[in-house]
Write a structure and sequence with these properties.
This protein has 8 helices and no strands. By secondary structure, it is mainly alpha-helical. Helix 4 packs parallel to helix 6 (about 140-165) and helix 6 packs antiparallel against helix 7. It is elongated.
Length: about 250
């Protein structure tokens, strides 16, 4: 179990680091003041949303638009690594929760995150196709949004089940249960957001971002607890080694 905890801790660090790399390689380099461009590409569902996502804020700037399209493509290719990392991270956390007794919720979390990862791969394929056409059309935007809806819905369901697996487990520490509660809230916010994306894209973006932010908080809290557990184990082993040589 300690080896699994160490592996999960490494995955959380790797996932966080890769997310920062993706941000540095895309959003921070976009021209103009349009926010949430990647989410707009994912759930916009029409050509107007795709066009808006790659605009630069200048009335006529074909070079800037082309640069933004390249950045979307770069982000999409980098996302393939991100998919592997978040799937392994969720599966690892679920495995730990399952060992401690919450096998049902842990299993549901793994199933949901697997569906989310598969939909994410299809969504990336659809984005690459859309960014390769000379003029955006509604059909290519709809293809992206359909896969994106499945991805986000199952990702946040996985988050919700994972949170329940941790929060309802009396055999874990209070910090892990608090992290689980944060995951539950994150999952509920995300599901609420993606459930209303056809009604209001802006509403969906706000709640998806809120859900993702809470997931980050929950992961960091869990990482802190895992680090504490591993340090405590290392301290115990040092004491045992000292007694053995005494």
């Amino acid at each position: 179990m300690r080896k699994t905890e160490k592996f999960v801790a490494i995955l959380i660090v790797a996932l966080s680091a890769w997310a920062l790399v993706m941000m540095a390689a895309t959003d921070w380099q976009f021209k103009g003041n349009i926010r949430n461009r990647i989410l707009l590409v994912e759930i916009g569902s029409d050509a107007a949303s795709l066009n808006h996502a790659v605009q630069t804020g200048v009335r006529s700037d074909p070079d800037g638009i082309a640069q933004n399209v390249r950045l979307v493509v770069r982000n999409t290719y980098m996302d393939f690594v991100f998919i592997v990392l978040y799937f392994l991270t969720y599966a690892g956390i679920a495995y730990l929760a399952g060992i401690l007794g919450q096998r049902l919720f842990a299993s549901l979390a793994v199933i949901c995150v697997a569906v989310a990862a598969a939909a994410d791969l299809l969504e990336n394929h659809a984005i690459l196709i859309a960014m390769g056409v000379q003029k955006f059309t509604d059909p290519v935007a709809v293809d992206i949004s359909e896969f994106s809806q499945v991805k986000w819905a199952f990702f946040f369901l996985a988050t919700l089940f994972l949170g329940l697996a941790m929060a309802l487990n009396r055999r874990t520490s209070s910090l892990r249960r608090i992290a689980g509660l944060i995951f539950v809230i994150a999952g509920a916010c995300g599901v609420l957001g993606i459930g209303r994306y056809r009604v209001s894209v802006e509403f969906a973006i706000v709640f998806i971002n809120l859900g993702v932010l809470l997931v980050i908080v929950g992961l960091l809290l869990l990482l802190w607890k895992l680090r504490q557990s591993l340090r405590e184990l290392s301290h115990v082993r040092q004491i045992q080694a000292a007694h053995a040589h005494a």
